[in-house]
Amino acid sequence: STQKTTPQGFQTNEYADAQLQEIVRKMRERATVYKEKLKDPVLSSPEGSPTASPSKKKPPPPPKDEKKEEKKEEAEAKPEEDHYCDMLCCKFKKPPLKKYMTYLQLPDSIDSYTDRRYVAWLMLVTVAYNWNCWFIPLRFVFPYQTPSNTIYWVAIDIICDICYLCDLLVFQPRVQFLKGGDIISDKVEMKKFYHSSMKFRLDVISVLPFEVLYIFFGFNPAFRANRMLKHNTFFEFNDRLEAILDKAYIYRVIRTTGYLLFILHINACLYYWASDYEGLGSTRWVYDGQGNMYLRCYYWAVRTLITIGGLPEPQTLFEIVFQLLNFFLGVFVFSSLIGQMRDVIGAATAGQNYYRSCMDNTVSYMNTYSIPKVVQNRVRTWYEYTWDSQGMLDESELLEQMPTKMQLAIAIDVNFAIVNKVDLFKASTFTEECSNDGCDTQMIYDMLLRLKSIVYLPGDFVCKKGEIGREMYIIKQGEVQVLGGPDGTKVLVTLRAGAVFGEISLLAAGGGNRRTANVVAHGFANLFILDKKTLNEILVHYPDSEKLLMKKAKVLLKEKGKPAPGPPVQQPRGLAGLFGQKQETPKLFKAMLGGKGKAGLAKLLQLKRERDIQENEAETEKPEQEEKKPEPEKKPEQEKKPPEPAASSAPPAQKEEPNADAKPKPPAVMHRGTTNESLIISMSPSPTAGEGEILKVEAKEKKRK
Fold this sequence. Notes:
Layout: E1 3-5, E2 11-13, H1 14-39, H2 64-81, E3 82-85, E4 90-93, H3 97-104, H4 116-141, H5 150-171, E5 177-179, E6 182-184, H6 187-195, H7 198-206, H8 214-217, H9 231-244, H10 248-278, H11 293-305, H12 317-348, H13 350-368, H14 373-390, H15 395-399, H16 404-419, H17 427-431, H18 439-448, E7 452-456, E8 461-463, E9 471-484, E10 490-495, E11 500-501, E12 518-531, H19 532-539, H20 543-561, H21 587-593, H22 598-620, H23 631-640, E13 677-685, E14 693-701
Antiparallel strand pairs: 1-2, 3-4, 5-6, 7-12, 8-12, 9-10, 9-11, 9-12, 13-14
Protein name: CNGB3 protein
Catalytic activity: K(+)(in) = K(+)(out); Na(+)(in) = Na(+)(out)
Organism: Asarcornis scutulata
């Protein structure tokens, strides 16, 4: 440690000096905290709870073999992460191959509702199913399969059959199922459930190898007709895909259109088969064998099912019966598909139709009661912005249909980050002082479910100056401006998304505090509102959190009320740091002195002399002649009396009434000069508790030597 010699000759140790100052500072802070605790018993103890001491036992060192294996794994992982690209001339990180293999590894059990890999596999099986549904009738009716291209058709058929077999043996036995509300993921139970289902029977029939009959009857695609029985996988894929798509109605429209095209495809195949049965070009009704056979037949199928008309009249009985069945089937199928298409489009636009209906009803109501056009335009603007920004008029209506747990999960993902920014509800405020029951987090969760979203138009007043604050506002989207100044139009500050204002009003006692400025929406603003009544209903169940919130609110209120910090004050060094700074002179004493230094003392002595002169003149004017006492004996008694506060403004009241003929008193003249009197000023505690201290001023003559 270093020592230094002061000018007075004392030696001080800098380290000891710093330690003493630190001790004094901590003692003052602790005394301040305990004073606040005595005033407000709600505040908790400033001393934090002791933390658990770590165990002294050191963990045993890992064996050498394990260390070597870890080093090898790290060495292998490092070159896999960093790769140098010659083309780009830079390094980039590439995930190791093990992660890809782990992701692609087939799990022991598959959740059909959440596993995207299972949906991808169903899509592959659906492609194979559609291949069989579209091309088996085509190859059976139209002469597109020839000996020269049979090998290509057979190769694609084998690939589709492999997909069917993998789905039957590998994927479907691993799919989880529900039993009594429980999710069963046991391998044996999953296999038993799948083997006992109708889907398993149809899957087995769909893979039976009827192609062995090719040996006896040739390559006839009709022997593969059993492949079209795997329709359960196709519908399952549709359900899973709609569940994960953001706009499922688009896929529904495409699927419905596909149904229509497939029915027309089957009808075209039937028309070519009927024409071949009657003989190509034998009559005007059948296909004449010219042009593209599939397109000509498909065109005829479209005109027949849609009942456009203008077709050649059937000639034979077979043609008439076939045409009648086509008309009946066309009316039924076409009307069903059109109705299904209408339902799909109607479901997709149900929200927009509800929005239009609400807006039309509101406009009709305003027109009925002759609402001004300015107000009507603002209402229309609110409807349009609300619909464009969030796609619905009221988010709470959608969430009310869900269970409370799901509502909470959605509210946490959407609003928790915003609420956690509020100083009054920060999680750090609670984790340090709250108990281990997690009341703070649960209280915030309950509060998230009570937040209300309100949209303000440009120029709308969120709150006005002088209003009683009973709400807290959180800006979700947009901006608001705080206005002030003499005319209330000066922009003091602009608050943006994530900002919070009015949080102190939630816990203000005595009817709330008044707003000190106007807050106006600058553009469209979407705000969350939490009122005082809702917060009180929540805090009833969390008394510990209520105490902490009250403490935090008081601290924030003090911080907002503090003046701007001035220049830093240099603290005295040495032993002088043990004593506090000199307290300010009491205001009463300043008022009595009327000035500073000797000027104030001189004025006080002048007032004392004027009072003595006035008392002497009053004694000489008494009507009764009394024996006068010597002045030196009376003066000390009068000087011992403390002066009254009114002595500086008016003379003291006299004991007897003055003569009516008495002449007016001359004004007091201030005499300048020296005096042999001394002034004694002292402060003594009041005998009555709570009345502070008493100031005494005495004037005595100096003793002559």
